[in-house]
Amino acid sequence: MVSTNAIPAGAATAGGQNHHKARLEFVAGGLSGVTNVIVGFPLHKIIFRQQLWNISFRNAADQVIRKEFLSLYRGVLPPLLQRICNLSLLFGCYAKFSTELTLLAPRWNAEVCSALAAFMAGSCEASLMPLERVQTLLQDQRYQATYRNTFHAFGQLYRQHGLTEWYRGLTPILYRNGFSSVLYFLLKAHMERRATGMPGPVRDFTNGALLGALLSTFNYPFNVAKTHMQKTVGGPYTSFVTCLRLEYISRGRSVRQIYRGALPNCFRSMLSWGVVTASYEFFSHYLA
């Protein structure tokens, strides 16, 4: 007797092809991360200094480029590892979850499946936040004599404060990653359908840049709170809401001051996501 639950051969073949494609997405995402960090790290360091000390872009750039040129790429290893792993997880998990949801719930609306897959993929990225935590300390001038490099910082934090210190600032990262991933993948799909008549690389970079501008604006308060939560080593933990409220008060109850540094961050994000999207699409098609 033939089981009525047997999977048709065509469906099994298609499922196998989708799983193979999902595995390639992990590789393509990681390669796009390498390209992204090499291009964007100096600008990211300047913006980080602005967020930390609430100074002008010119003063932050003067500190980073003129006074600290020889250590310009100090702290690059955590974001390099983080970006490779983050983008690998983001694109790979999104493809994997999308495939699984389509097979498990074929009657669901495609955009619902896409949004759910994107949120889960963004949440998976948060597992790598210790790299972001260490990057914050290595870029802070106050800790240059305390932590020699990435591995030394990890060891010192663990020995002196325990494993939980690696995850200080987790909440804003979860919110940021989950919701921004949903926005990225849903809007990217809409823009690809509407952007006709442009060469592929130009279209991909343009779409990524526009999405980067939107995401940077959406994410900026999360990043401000995260930076100030993570600049502390040891001691009590401050909640995300409390930290953001204290920053709001300390900056004269001005939303504009909370967004200080948002404009150069927007340009950095446009460049970053333009490069990520274009290079990801290139590697994805090359590996297919």
Q: Keywords for this structure?
A:
disordered N terminus; 76% helix; single chain; 288 residues; mainly alpha
Q: Would you write up a description of this structure?
A:
With 288 residues, this protein is an all-alpha fold. It has a single domain (14-287), classed as Mitochondrial carrier fold (Alpha/alpha barrel), CATH 1.50.40. Helices cover 76% and strands 0% of the residues. It is built from eleven helices and no strands. It has helices at 9-53, 57-67, 77-104, 110-125, 129-139, 150-161, 170-194, 200-230, 240-250, 255-258, 262-287. Helix 1 (9-53) packs across helix 2 (57-67) and helix 8 (200-230) crosses helix 9. The protein is globular and about 50 Å long. Residues 1-7 have low confidence and may be disordered.
Extract low-pLDDT stretches.
1-7
- H/E topology pattern: HHHHHHHHHHH
Round the mean pLDDT to the nearest integer and report it. Answer: 86
CATH class: Mainly Alpha
Q: Give the beta-strand count.
A: 0
Number of domains: 1
Strand content: under 5%
Q: How far do the termini sit from each other? A: 39 Å
What count of helical segments does DSSP give?
Answer: 11
Main sheet summary: none
The backbone outline, from C-alpha atoms, is globular
Quaternary form: single chain
Question: What share of the residues lie within helices?
Answer: over 70%
Radius of gyration, Cα only, in angstroms? 21 Å
CATH fold category name: Mitochondrial carrier fold
Structural class, by secondary structure, is mainly alpha
What is the architecture at the second tier of CATH?
Answer: Alpha/alpha barrel
Superfamily at the CATH H level? Mitochondrial carrier domain
Solcar repeats: 20-100, 109-194, 199-286
GO molecular function: NAD transmembrane transporter activity
Membrane topology: Multi-pass membrane protein
Subcellular location: Mitochondrion inner membrane
